[in-house]
Design a protein that fits this description.
By secondary structure, the protein is an alpha/beta fold. It is built from 5 helices and 9 strands; from the N terminus they run E-E-H-E-E-E-E-H-E-H-E-H-E-H.
């Protein structure tokens, strides 16, 4: 897949405020500061399309980007550190929960995991909840440039073992680095396959 155009559409505070269109949507989500905005910029090859910050929880709204005039990439608030007020559902934004559970346009969710870390309880808890939404999802292990490939593969193996305690068939797994561009084509190929269904 080649991305020829990427346009910021809007930021939605809740499900009601999401775009009223029939455009298929691909969402990215993960723990705060895992590299969601960096991935959006990497995929679209636009350096500042999504705001990147060192501060956890910077993204607090559902951000929609219209891609190639035919589908949308949705940058969701990170779970864990985002300031979401009193309305929380299992530790993450209630608006995000509504979107993932009820949005008819949603075709696939890419859950970003920091490849340097042992399996985090909040990531595993989120995945178990996401299973109840019955939406296809893939795992993207980010920041692969921060360590050796053997270390990355070892951490992924540990994560797989944790997921296999409650899910027999593992989801698709992609390794990325926004710095080296590793995995960009793999993610785009995955999105293309999803949209072709």
């Amino acid at each position: 897949m080649k991305i020829n155009s990427a346009e910021f559409k809007l930021s939605a505070p809740d499900l009601r405020s999401c775009p009223n269109w029939a455009v298929p949507e691909i969402a990215v989500i993960g723990r705060s500061n895992v590299g969601k905005s960096s991935l959006v910029n990497l995929l679209t090859e636009r350096r500042a399309l999504a705001m990147v910050s060192d501060l956890p929880g910077k993204t607090k709204l559902l951000n929609f980007f219209h891609i190639n005039g035919s589908w949308a990439l949705v940058d969701l608030p990170g779970y864990g550190y985002a300031a979401v007020g009193e309305q929380r559902r299992r530790g993450f934004n209630a608006a995000v929960a509504d979107y993932l559970d009820e949005r008819e346009n949603l075709r696939r969710v890419y859950v970003l995991i920091d490849s340097r870390l042992e399996p985090q309880p909040i990531d595993l808890e989120f995945l178990r909840w996401l299973e109840t939404c019955e939406v296809p999802y893939s795992l993207i292990f980010t920041k692969a440039d921060k360590q050796s490939s053997n270390q990355t593969l070892a951490q992924i193996a540990t994560f797989k073992a944790a997921v296999q305690q409650w899910r027999a068939e593992l989801p698709e797994i992609i390794i990325t680095s926004s710095k080296t561009r590793k995995g960009r084509s793999d993610v785009l190929d995955s999105i293309a396959k999803t949209l072709a269904k």
